[in-house]
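Entry:
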Amino acid sequence: MRTEEQFLCGIHRRAAALRREKERRQTAAWSALSIALTVLLALETVTPHAPGTGMMTGASLLSDMVGGYVLTAVVAFMLGVAITVLLRHERAKKKAKEENNLTTGEK
């Protein structure tokens, strides 16, 4: 038969596992949202090229017509950095709180 301490330890392990699963799902949802927003932004800012320009090369980014592409890239990068920083900060805060709760014995 298990003691009360073993029983509570099992409950805390299960709760931690459930929290990790919830965080994993939230991270996946934020990633999907970030990708969707990036694609929508890219589709919104696509500018048609002049007919007959032929193949596009790296020098085509110097053209005046590709401002939308550059803006899309910068905004997508900033959005990705912001979401990454927010998620890392939230995860670190939760981890510190869990460690504090485990050391003090609180729920």
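The CA atoms of residues 10 and 55 lie 63 Å apart.
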